[in-house]
Design a protein that fits this description.
By secondary structure, this protein is mainly alpha-helical. Helix content is 83%, strand content 0%. It is globular and about 55 Å long.
Length: 242
């Protein structure tokens, strides 16, 4: 009911239903995934009502409960870090948003070691890219504010990790593709995307001080689109030539 109300932009009603749902589960430890999902939805409703500060407090308290109960790592926890980072980024609390995004990346990296199926990997990959891009955005904003080179270096390091993920996956697939009979045209397209992504990242960080904010934003959007194209191509390959 809360989700339905939120889809209809009835956020006050949605919040009431989320509170009702949460009260049904008095013991957090017996139903953590449900409580986390409710809190995430409630945070989105609060943000829609321009109550981002309350949403942030809600998620920070939620993380404290997760840590105090020593819950096993889950995708829900990654979503908490991701949502918290988004809220902090919107408030221009760039240092705190960067911390949240980096924790999300770290948690997702640990979580990805448990998954072997290709569909799960595709899902995790898209999450990685979004977290990487937002962490880079927060680092770049901190650099623009302070002109401290350590934030520029941080942005570059995150970009390198993102690129390393792409390259590692490409290398792994090349071996598998040799047995799957993958056409040369698709292999060439994959290689071209990787090369273009690498070139865009090099421009974004080596010429950061020379580019205006509009150009930087456009460059970032183009880079995100390229990475999405790469993820879609990877998904197509895995579906058609598995």
């Amino acid at each position: 009911l809360g989700n339905c109300a939120q889809l209809e932009a009835q956020f006050t009603t949605a919040l009431r239903w989320y509170d009702e749902a949460s009260s049904l589960f008095e013991s957090f430890q017996s139903s953590p995934s449900i409580q986390i999902n409710i809190a995430l939805n409630k945070a989105i409703a609060l943000q829609a009502q321009n109550q981002a500060a309350q949403a942030i407090v809600l998620l920070e308290n939620l993380l404290a409960r997760i840590n105090s109960h020593e819950l096993p790592l889950s995708e829900n926890q990654v979503d908490v870090y991701h949502t918290l980072g988004d809220l902090k980024l919107a408030q221009k609390a760039y240092d705190q948003s960067l911390i949240a995004f980096e924790k999300g990346i770290e948690s997702l990296a640990a979580l990805s070691q448990r998954f072997q199926g290709q569909s799960a990997k595709v899902n995790l990959r898209s999450r990685f890219y979004d977290l990487y891009e937002k962490a880079i955005a927060a680092s770049s904003a901190l650099y623009q504010q302070s002109k401290d080179k350590k934030y520029l270096e941080k942005a570059f390091q995150i970009a390198e990790k993102s690129k390393a993920l792409l390259i590692r996956e490409a290398q792994q697939k090349m071996q598998a593709n040799a047995f799957a009979g993958l056409p040369d045209s698709i292999l060439q397209k994959e290689q071209q995307l990787l090369e273009t992504i690498s070139e865009y990242e090099k421009i974004r960080y080596e010429e950061l001080d020379l580019l205006d904010s509009l150009t930087l934003r456009q460059l970032g959007l183009e880079l995100l689109k390229l990475k999405q194209d790469f993820a879609q191509l990877t998904s197509f390959i895995e579906e058609q030539f598995k």
